[in-house]
Each structure stands twice: as structure tokens, then as C-alpha cells.
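Fe2OG dioxygenase domain-containing protein
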Amino acid sequence: MVTKTEPESSDFDRDTALKAFDDTKAGVKGLVDAGIAKIPPIFLHSRPNAASVQSTPGHTESELPGVDGDPNLRRRVIWQVNDACRRWGFFQVINHGIPTTLLNKMMEGVKGFHELETEVKKGFYTRDYSKTLTYNCNFDFYQSPAVNWRDTVSCVMAPRPPNPKELPQVCGETMVDYSTQVMLLARRLFVLLSEALGLNPSYLNDIGCSEGLMFFGHYYPACPEPDLTMGISSHSDSSFLTVLLQDQIGGLQVQCDNHWVDVEPNTSALVINVGDLLQLISNDEFKSSQHRVLTKFIGPRVSVACFLRQQLPPENSRVYGPVKELVSEENPPVFRKTAVKEFVKYYYAKGLNGISALEHFRL
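Predicted C-alpha cells:
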């Protein structure tokens, strides 16, 4: 689907081009503001790794499992979550309890940050991921085969909330309020996920799956050549669970049964997906699916992804392996134990290359 129209010239110095772009600290937004008609070579993507996977534009969100968060429907909800996590690794939840006004305010806040004057944003631009808050273009900018058409502001929101003075004024207060609501939702979801796995309802919360939250505010500007690049290339998430808020532009696709399925926006729903760490501790019971975001002529597309996992020490030193209640002589562990720190370090070093980081930890 995504192809290069012509090879890079023999005198093209990719490393120099990457550094020159990064040094602008203006991100993809800066290219669009400059009025470019063609995307720079560093953004050109070759054909997706899984050539047999076919895009199916006719598929809609009606095929992505939907879950009603109404507690009065508990038994049915657990069945729905169990089925979705084993077959898709994705579902959409309605009646999630987060006010629509807060969802809208969060989207406006992220958009507002990315549309600040470049000189203001430069103060946040960094690739030092030991910092609480970072803003840059692609966390794997220097590792990936091709740069994705996306800028991101990210922040560690839990278990130790950031100093409000460290957050951007345009969206900081809303980031705190929204993250608090997401963590409450996540705790409820982990109860359902525990029961779906046949565990004690509090199991996943008790082992710390819901104690950490990484906030990612993504901004995908309109692209002059959307068929030549990607918003986010194929990947799975490094989380236990991801809670995604997306706007109405669309572009998110999930891989299922060897097809790319469109996840059409639903104003009343949040998209939930299983992350790599949950697939690891569930011993392959739940599926951390590959997904991607397509670029479009229109934009900007804005989304907010909250990763439920630890990011900074000492919390990220906690070691996880397949849950002992889920393994047996007939069903032995398929992954080795790993600290979150080790897993995330490998994930960041590998970048979004279409290959699951879990393969590195498989026995």
C-alpha cells in the first residue's frame, strides 16, 4: 500500500538529514507551516513488512467489538471483554464514565499545545526520556527505517504526578484531570480482565498493572503525499493496557485475521487495546495486536493515548512473568520474566519496525 516513488539519491546523507530536521525542534508541524508540497526523503516508507496483509476499507467500527461499561450488565461485559481480548486485542467501550466535556477539552488542549508558536514549544523539545515531560517528533526518530508523520507530547502522570509548573499551561490542568479519570476507568477494566482470565477480580490491580500512566498527545498534520508515509507504522504497545481517545478524522487500523480493519471514530466510545505486557503476563491468552495510523490530505488528526504501565524508577524495576495461575505442565510459560525497565528499554531501542518486542522475550 505504501511505496517509494523513487529511490533516495546516492548522495543523500540520511544521518545528516535526520539531525538537520531534529535540530529545527519544529517537528512535522514546522514542515506544514513552511508550505511544503513534497515530503522529505526521511519520511518515505517502503512497502509494509507483512505484504500478505490487505487493507479492507469496507470494514467499520461495527466489526470492532463494542463493550458497554454499565455495571448492571457485568456478566455480559466480562464475556465481551474476554472474547475481544482473545480475538482482536481491541475493543471500544461506551458508558465509560468520563464526561464528554472533559474528553473534548483534552483534545482541544493537545491541539492547542501543538499549535503553539514554535519558539514556545522548543522549550519542551527533548529526547531525554528520563524527563517527566517530552515533546518531539517520533520517539524512535533515529532508529526507525522511516520517520512517521507525527509529533507527540508525552508525560509520566502516575504513580508520581508531575509538578503542575512543569506542564504546558495550554493543557496541563486538563492532562491531570483526564489522567485521573483514565486511571479510575483502567482499574475497573483490570477487574473485568482479571475475571476474564479466571483470576481473582483484584488480581491485575494488586500486581500493579494500573499503578503507572504514560500520557501521549499525538498530532498528525495534513500530509501533501499521504500514500508515501505513515502516521504511525505497524506496532503493538508496550503497555499492559492502552486507553485511546481519537478525534473524528480517522486513520487508525488494527490487524485482525490477516486484514487491516478501519477503527472508525465513535464520539461516545474510547478505544481500549491489550498491550505487550498484558499478553506476556497472560501467557499468550490475550492478544497485543499490531495497529497503525494512516496519513491523510486532511488534518490535523489529534489523539490521546494513555499507556497503563510504569516508566521511571523505582517502579519500572518491578519484574513480571506469566501469571502462575495461568501456567501448568500442559500450558507452560511461553515468555521469560522481565522487569518493565528492561522491556521498555528494548522496545525503545528497537523502534516501531512492525515486529513485536515480545518475540525477544519468548522462551
